[in-house]
Design a protein that fits this description.
The structure is a single chain. The chain is 39% helix and 12% strand. It has 413 residues and is of the alpha/beta class. The chain has 2 domains: 8-258, 3-Layer(aba) Sandwich (Aspartate Aminotransferase, domain 2); 259-410, Aspartate Aminotransferase, domain 1 (Alpha-Beta Complex), CATH 3.90.1150.10. It has a 7-stranded mixed sheet, sandwiched between helices. It has a two-stranded antiparallel ribbon with strand order 4-5. The radius of gyration is 21 Å and the shape is globular. The relative contact order is 0.16. The protein binds pyridoxal-5'-phosphate. Pyridoxal-5'-phosphate binds at residues 59-61, 85-86, 88-89, 144, 170, 172-173, 194, 196, 206, 208.
Length: 413
């Protein structure tokens, strides 16, 4: 049996005639940039996301950049985010000349820990203090809703209010997820979404979207994505060329009505994995060293080599009025890289999101971070392993993943 990490063919088969018709309509119109197809999709998605304003752009990375440009972040100012994310989150901060300040994660959810953010803002975070971060120069927080489960937004919004900071939600992996009854992107000043093909709502190329609360900032973000010009050729701002093209918008309009059903199927697949792994007896709780250790990697790590830690639904649990949309189903295992290779040999795809936390990236060496500055992120980067999940995954495939992985684990002492 072959179980890819993601099977886009299975989804395409389901919607092929609709997609082809939608592409044909765009081809017949010969209107490819902005225009009515993009406007229609923007209206549909603002309705879906409960957003006041929504603008398509070229990628999720650009959505983050547009948000930071709209609030006019200046060189030397700081933006707080998580070290355990895709590079685009931190990269956008640096590209506007600002400096990323990292707050470690809460290990069960892999998301930024609000109490770590508070330490930075109150001047009590040892790393931020060592690096000379002036809390008064912090302008914004970018929580990332990793793997499709939202960050703990209520305390984050409280802090933002108290310290007068913008909140830019990196919802690239979380379209349609919920926290306390509200959708991803509904909390912050901005919501940034990605339509990278592997995302839950994926285009057939790059694409992104920014949602904005404030009407003036919305107008600015809209202008910024078309070079900062309004009207054309009259540049109010130094903007960029970042638009969602009509072909991608047409494809996304076909897919959007299926999104909730697909998310439900992902949730069902996650539940099935949880059940099968629990029945296998190979699971364990996250060891204390991952939740409390203040030193890098605490050797030896207490996670037994023949056990795995299941993903935890926290903010995303229905009992908390939440919804985890399982963009990824991510477990923790000790001998992660070796296990990945063994799965590959058995034709099972898996992936590491992400192997190197932001503070350990070479491009940030000059900031002066040390590896042990964010031990929980380092630990997650060593242990996280994402298993195949997509709406069309079959029970047989899931059973094969579970039996193969538990057999691999059984070979460790
Ligand atoms: C957390 C996160 N932020 C930002 C991005 C950037 O999105 P894109 O690839 O559309 O630029 C991604 C997607 O890869 C992501 O996963």
């Amino acid at each position: 049996m072959n179980v890819p990490l993601l099977d886009l063919h299975a989804q395409y088969e389901q919607i092929k005639p609709e997609v082809k018709t939608a592409i044909d309509v765009v081809l017949e119109s010969q209107s490819f940039i902005m225009g009515s197809t993009v406007k229609r999709f923007e209206a549909e998605i603002s309705n879906y996301c409960n957003a006041e304003h929504a603008f398509g752009c070229a990628s999720g990375s650009d959505a983050l950049l547009l948000a930071l440009m709209a609030i006019d972040i200046k060189p030397g100012e700081y933006v707080i985010t998580t070290p355990f994310t895709f590079f685009a989150t931190a990269g956008a901060i640096s590209r506007v000349g600002a400096i990323p300040v990292f707050a470690d994660i809460e290990p069960n959810s892999f998301n930024i820990d609000p109490s770590e953010i508070e330490k930075i803002l109150s001047g009590e975070h040892p790393v931020a203090s060592r690096l000379g971060v002036d809390p008064k120069k912090v302008r914004a927080i970018i929580p990332v809703h990793l793997y499709g489960q939202m960050a703990d937004m209520n305390p984050i919004m409280d802090l933002a209010k108290r310290y007068k900071l913008y909140v830019i939600e990196d919802a690239a992996q979380a379209i349609g997820s919920k926290y306390d009854g509200k959708q991803a992107g509904e909390f912050g000043d901005f919501g940034c979404f990605s339509f990278f093909p592997s995302k839950n709502l994926g285009a057939y190329g790059d694409g992104g979207l920014i949602t904005v609360k404030d009407p003036d900032l919305a107008k600015k973000a809209d202008i910024l994505r078309t070079h900062g010009a309004r009207p054309k050729y009259h540049n109010i701002y130094v903007g960029m060329n970042s638009r969602l093209d009509a072909m991608q918008a047409a494809i996304l309009s076909v897919k959007l009505p299926y999104l909730n059903e697909w998310s439900e199927k992902r949730r069902e697949a996650a539940e099935k994995y949880n059940l099968l792994f629990t029945e296998s007896g190979y699971i364990t709780d996250i060891p204390d060293c991952c939740t409390t250790c203040e030193a890098l990697g605490k050797e030896p790590c207490d996670l037994p080599s023949n056990r795995l830690v299941l993903p935890k639904e926290q903010t995303g649990a229905p009992a908390n009025n939440g919804k985890h949309i399982y963009h990824q189903y991510t477990i923790r295992v000790k001998n992660r890289d070796e296990i990945m290779k063994k799965l590959q040999k058995k034709s099972i795809g898996s992936a590491v999101y992400y192997p190197v936390p932001m503070h350990e990236q070479q491009c940030y060496a000059e900031i002066g971070f040390e590896s042990h500055d964010f031990p929980k992120s380092v630990c997650a980067a060593n242990q996280a392993l994402s298993l195949p999940i997509y709406p069309e995954i079959s029970e047989d495939q899931q059973e094969y993943v579970v039996s193969t992985l538990t057999k691999i684990l059984s070979e460790y002492a």
